[in-house]
Amino acid sequence: MSINFDEQRWNRVRANYRRWWAGELDRPLISATLGGYKSDRPEPKLPGHGFTSFYASEVTPEAIVDRWDHGLSTCRFLGDAFPSVWPNFGPGVMAAFVGCRLENAPSTVWFHPEKETDLRHVHVRFDSKNPWFIRVAGIAKAAVARWKGQVQVGMTDLGGSLDVAASFRPGEKLLLDLYDQPAEVKRVRDEVHKAWWKYFEALDRVMRPPNPGYTAWTPIFSEEPYYMLQCDFAYMIGPEMFDEFVKPELAATCRKLNHAFYHLDGVGQLPHLDSLLTIPELKGVQWVPGDGQPDVSHWPEVYRKIRRAGKLVQVFSSQYAGGFPIVDVLADQLGSAKGIIVIGWADRAQEDTIRESLRKYHAE
Known about the structure:
CATH architecture of the largest domain: Alpha-Beta Barrel
Structural class: alpha/beta
Helix content: 25-40%
Low-confidence stretches: none
Number of strands: 11
Strand order of the largest sheet: 2-1-11-10-9-8-7
Order of helices and strands: HEHEEHEEHEHHHEHEHEHEHEH
Strand content: 5-15%
């Protein structure tokens, strides 16, 4: 096959990530995927797109996977990187699985209720016959059939429980529900949680085996169940409401996932960090400062707090103007680079510079 990654490389990935999750790897993980190389296979006619949901229903899963295959054949995987894909149907696509309408926008995907209704009339159930679920499962099935373990196929972005609930109660309605009918919020949250796990397990059965392991939209490899958890809705509530409405479900999911990370998105979520870090089963935090904020090199107190709690840290190289040397910045701020993973994509022209970082941390 034209993808430049063999079983020997996969064995190395498995071993290094296994040690990193266990806290036994003394160096950081540096995952650098470089693009722009010439492929030895013809390019398919189907254009590439960041959102898989943009492909019309008549485009077969096999055609989408072939498009992905060509893209991966133009890449090289340096350090701790590995070939991976994931069916991107927008953040929180589980809302579409359980009855919301999926709308493709120019640069994102939105979910809307078919009919706005009181929360008391919202009921969330697993539906194996939902067309969007069938579409995602079909693409995942075609991907693992094509690559037979050479490429890691990641979980689609199911979303957070209250984020899915908010798709049924757009605008400020769910916020008002926290005050007006808190018991109903918790009921819907728990229904979403139950259905979320059924979708996660159903898609996992489609992919494993021969899928090498687990990834999500953030490609951190894990041999055991892993997911990048989130609750964007939490940006709009205070710590007391977070602890009442969000944390119990997050903690329950962390207990079921072997390797759970949390996507801490924006300064509005920082008030929840202390509470998050008390969840014993939460393995790590991905900090995203958000638009208009200083980049990830300017938040040492956030990373120190995460490190003191014994959690792992993940950043993207694109979150720092200097790229992959963000690992040097974090290592200086924290005293060591242990427990950090930096993930990024770059053009082949940057290969020499990136290899310098890899050599420095013995990650080649």
